Amino acid sequence: AGEAGDGRAAATRRLRPYDKHRQPGLPYVTAKFAASLDGRIATATGESQWITGEAARERAHQERAHVDAILVGSGTVLADNPTLTARPGGTLAPHQPVRIVVDARGRTGSDATLFSQPGRTIVATAAAAAPAWKHEIAAAGAQIIECEADEHGVNLNQLFQALAQPRIISIWAEGGAARAVRPPVPARPDARHEIE
Q1: Nearest Cα to 173, choosing from 99, 79, 81?
Q2: Which of 12, 100, 158, 176 meets the CB 3.0–4.6 Å disulfide criterion with 73?
Q3: Could you give the CA distance from residue 115 to residue 19 in angstroms, rounded to a whole number?
Q4: Sequence-separated (6 or more) residues with CB below 8 Å from residue 50
Q5: Rounded-to-integer distance, Cα 43 and Cα 35, Å
Q6: Torsions phi, psi of 160, nearest 5?
Q7: H or E element, residue 17
Q8: Percent of the chain clearing pLDDT 90 (strictly above)
């Protein structure tokens, strides 16, 4: 027989996204990024895929398998050409999170690897991005969400409101996108909730 409180911490942790979504109606965002000893997210040669060790990468894949979406910026797509899939233990997980790319300037190519992976892909962009690029990305299978531009590119508060509507309640932000999801400031209330 268990005692009151057994598993409470784990249950509370798993319920945080739901609780956040129920209160202000915004997704719960976990910002995950790795940094080298000099505080950069890439090495001096520009390599950024393997700053972390194998155990940290495995943990990231386990976390990806439990969130609704993975969010990255276009810089991560251009530098690493990631799949943005959940592969705990090296095996594609049954649940694949929605892949979200934030790209205000239309830099992501329609040949990016993430467009050929199982599941949904969303590209969040500014209304001013080139219509031909938006059409090309949509033809690659992505859903386009247009947001107002802000000083960081795409207005993330507006994006998070749009994402909450189809019940995306937990987001795992990686790489440069994790840094872009800055601590709450008046224009971006409750932008980030956890740092890994």
Answers
A1: 99
A2: 176
A3: 31
A4: none
A5: 9
A6: -60, -35
A7: helix 8-22
A8: 47
Six token digits for residue 1: 């027989």
- Each residue's pLDDT tens digit, 25-76: 788 888 876 655 555 555 555 554 556 678 887 888 888 999 999 999 999 9
Cβ density class 165-193: b for 16+ within 10 Å, e for less = eeebbbbbbbbbbbbbbeeeeeebeebbb
Secondary structure class of 102 (helix, strand, coil) = strand
| Structure tokens that stand for 189 in this block | 């209330």
SS3 assignment, position 130: coil
How far is Cα of residue 122 from the mean position of the Cα atoms in its chain? 10
How far is Cα 165 from Cα 62, in angstroms, rounded to an integer? 25
DSSP 7: T
Whole-angstrom Cα distance, residue 187 to residue 59?
Answer: 32
Please check whether residue 32 is in contact with residue 62, taking contact to mean a CB–CB distance below 8 angstroms. no
pLDDT value at 136 more than 90: yes
